């Protein structure tokens, strides 16, 4: 699903150039649940941004589902993002004046799905995350865990190839974190490819594979025995 | 533009940001409102001034004598000037091709006017038959004076609608009745009205020749009046009337041995010249109104772009989210512009309708000197609205473009 070869990325900070990613090589197969771990400054967010086509790579190659991601203009990148990727953020990033259902329907709007169908799909995905009754509530009326579940429903609504989650449990307490992880595991069980950036070992343990980043290189890449979140819920 | 989905998206946004929308709209609507009201009053002033000059024929010229103030060729100052028939006749020949209508005038003073046993208090004036066109009189019944009346020194009189109403209300028509003016019988042959209104209808006209003979006028005249032939345009008319005024003045000054720089011995009033002064003042006022109006609109546009900048700033995160979800740059620009244009258009038209309505309702009831029926050219107002919408779009474009260029990572960064 994802092939990355010899990826380099550096940022210019005034006169100095900060070399963040120094040659990353890794592949993700379909249906994997990968945790990208590392301390802050290890380059994990940069890697996620490049994977999410929100940032451009300097050197190396990135292929997503057989499509080379290179020199995209904004419009093309937007198209690919919409088609291939779903995002889940630490701070949820729901649009605060839209109801839960409207938020979930938004990526479908950009796919030019008709309004009726959009609403049906939004409700379907809200039901999947167990929030059907909350469809008409504004984000401000939801708890943190509920917001993140809406965000996951939104990411899934576009039926992406890959779900990218940046610290999805970073703003949640541990019980809620496990609920969210339980949901992510269930989505993964349906065959979806998911990448999670986290620095919490217990969250990483709930994935199937852990990639450890340090100072811009992968120092460890291992498959693990998945801990099911359901038993903590 | 006709994308239904986009409209729904915009209505959603507007519904959920009522205050912001309202404030944007208010600045635009008030701009248009003020402009239209200003333009309306500009037009009103023009109408009012035009009305003031309607009372007499626009190209009329009036002459009346005064007293000399400057010593000239051995004549002492303080000498009263008396116009005479020969002045009138000579001027008529001298300036023949510049004159359309002409009339001398003699005020019959100390006259007693009686109808039956009723004593009336109206002025009696001797004039020529062409005076009708100089004073802008219209005929309601019978006829005005004619050449024959003058030649035969006929004892005929023309009364006004006002006199008719006040004195002859019991009769079907006053024509054929006899008025007694200082003991002499005059037959009423016509009834006139004055465009300038009732205050110009206090006069009884009799032929100038009759007036001079019957009331011991000899060949004396109180007044000369003329109209000039119509000119191609306003400028030509003004130039023509100034030339005529100067020619006439220099002749009369020579004839009465008056110093050329003596302004009070022979006075000539020329409404055209006055009109020109008023019209150029008008032009200035209109320009000023436009200027203020345009400034108001510019303030409105600046307001719109300012609000758009704030909107973009406020929605940075939302735009970042939308981009992450796959919004293309042009869809972001379109969304913000569409909203800006929609709000500007709605607000612009409300301002337009409101102000036009106000002018329409209040306009006809405005009764102030020099302001008459303020109104505004609908096309001008409509054009202004479209200019404003267009400017609003331009003003909204740059913030929108900036919004489309937002870096998703930065937009979504946690503060």
TrEMBL record, chain A:
It comes from the Bacteria. Residues 2-233 form the ABC transporter domain. It holds the Pfam family ABC_tran. The keyword Translocase applies. SMART domains: AAA (SM00382). Coiled coil: none annotated. Keywords: ATP-binding, Nucleotide-binding, Translocase, Transport. PROSITE patterns: ABC_TRANSPORTER_1 (PS00211), ABC_TRANSPORTER_2 (PS50893). One of its GO terms (cellular component) is membrane protein complex. Belongs to the ABC transporter superfamily. Macrolide exporter (TC 3.A.1.122) family. This is Putative ABC transport system ATP-binding protein. The lineage of its organism: Bacteria, Pseudomonadati, Bacteroidota, Flavobacteriia, Flavobacteriales.
From TrEMBL, chain B:
Its main location: membrane. GO terms for molecular function: transmembrane transporter activity. Signal peptide: none annotated. Residues 21-240 form the MacB-like periplasmic core domain. Pfam families: FtsX (PF02687), MacB_PCD (PF12704). It is a multi-pass membrane protein. Keywords: Cell membrane, Membrane, Transmembrane, Transmembrane helix. It is found in: Cell membrane. GO terms for cellular component: plasma membrane. The keyword Transmembrane applies. The chain crosses the membrane at residues 21-41, 287-312, 332-358, 378-398. InterPro entries: ABC3_permease_C, MacB_PCD, Macrolide_Exporter_MacB. Residues 291-407 form the ABC3 transporter permease C-terminal domain. Belongs to the ABC-4 integral membrane protein family. This is Putative ABC transport system permease protein. It comes from Maribacter arcticus.
């Amino acid at each position: 699903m994802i092939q990355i070869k010899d990826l380099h990325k550096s940022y210019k900070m005034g006169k100095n150039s900060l070399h963040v990613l120094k040659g990353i090589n890794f592949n993700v197969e379909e249906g994997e649940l990968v945790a990208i771990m590392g301390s802050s400054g290890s380059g994990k967010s940069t890697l996620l941004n490049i994977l999410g086509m929100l940032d451009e790579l300097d050197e190396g190659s990135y292929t997503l589902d057989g499509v080379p991601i290179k020199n995209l203009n904004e419009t093309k990148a937007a198209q690919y993002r919409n088609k291939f990727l779903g995002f889940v953020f630490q701070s949820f990033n729901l649009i605060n004046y839209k109801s839960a259902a409207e938020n979930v329907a938004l990526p479908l709007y950009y796919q030019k799905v008709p309004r009726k169908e959009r609403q049906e799909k939004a409700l379907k995905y809200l039901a999947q995350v167990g929030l059907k009754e909350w469809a008409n509530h504004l984000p401000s009326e939801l708890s943190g865990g509920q917001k993140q579940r809406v965000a996951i429903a939104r990411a899934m609504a576009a039926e992406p190839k890959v779900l990218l989650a940046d610290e999805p449990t970073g703003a949640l307490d541990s019980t809620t974190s496990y609920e969210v992880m339980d949901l992510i595991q269930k989505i993964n069980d349906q065959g979806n490819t998911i990448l999670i950036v986290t620095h919490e070992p217990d969250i990483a343990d709930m994935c199937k594979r852990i990639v450890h980043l340090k100072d811009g290189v992968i120092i460890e890449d291992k498959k693990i025995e998945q801990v099911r979140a359901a038993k903590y819920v | 533009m006709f994308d239904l989905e986009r409209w729904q998206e915009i209505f959603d946004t507007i519904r959920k940001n009522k205050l912001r929308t309202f404030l944007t709209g208010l600045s635009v609507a008030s701009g248009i409102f003020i402009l239209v009201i200003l333009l309306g009053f500009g037009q009103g002033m023009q109408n009012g001034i035009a009305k003031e000059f309607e009372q007499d024929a626009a190209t009329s010229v009036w002459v009346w004598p005064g007293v000399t103030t400057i010593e000239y060729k051995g004549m002492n100052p303080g000498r009263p000037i008396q116009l005479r028939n020969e002045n009138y006749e000579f001027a008529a020949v001298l300036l023949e091709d510049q004159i359309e209508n002409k009339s001398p005038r003699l005020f019959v003073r100390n006259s007693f006017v009686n109808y039956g046993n009723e004593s009336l208090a109206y002025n009696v004036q001797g004039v020529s038959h062409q005076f009708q066109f100089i004073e802008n009189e219209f005929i309601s019944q019978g006829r005005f004076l004619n050449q024959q009346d003058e030649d035969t020194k006929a004892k005929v009189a023309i009364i006004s609608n006002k006199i008719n109403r006040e004195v002859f209300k019991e009769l079907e028509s006053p024509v054929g009745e006899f008025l007694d003016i200082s003991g002499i019988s005059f037959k009423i042959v016509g009834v006139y009205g004055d465009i300038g209104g009732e205050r110009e209808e206090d006069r009884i006209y009799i032929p100038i020749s009759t007036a001079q003979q019957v009331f011991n006028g000899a060949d004396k005249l109180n007044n000369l009046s003329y109209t000039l032939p119509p000119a191609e345009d306003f400028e030509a008319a003004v130039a023509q009337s100034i030339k005529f005024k100067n020619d006439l003045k220099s002749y009369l000054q020579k004839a009465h041995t008056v110093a050329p720089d003596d302004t009070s011995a022979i006075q000539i009033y020329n409404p055209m010249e006055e009109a020109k002064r008023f019209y150029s003042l008008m032009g200035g006022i209109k320009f000023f109104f436009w200027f203020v109006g345009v400034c108001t609109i510019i303030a409105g546009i600046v307001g719109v772009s300012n609000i758009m900048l704030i909107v973009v700033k406020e929605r940075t995160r939302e735009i970042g989210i939308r981009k992450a979800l796959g919004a293309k740059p042009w869809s972001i620009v379109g969304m913000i512009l569409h909203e800006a244009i929609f709000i500007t258009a709605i607000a612009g038209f409300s301002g337009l309708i409101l102000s036009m309505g106000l002018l329409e309702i209040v306009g006809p009831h405005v009764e102030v000197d020099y302001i008459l029926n303020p109104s505004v050219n609908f096309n001008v107002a409509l054009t202004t609205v479209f200019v404003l919408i267009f400017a609003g779009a331009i003003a909204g474009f740059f913030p929108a473009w900036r919004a489309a260029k937002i870096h998703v990572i930065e937009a979504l960064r946690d503060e």
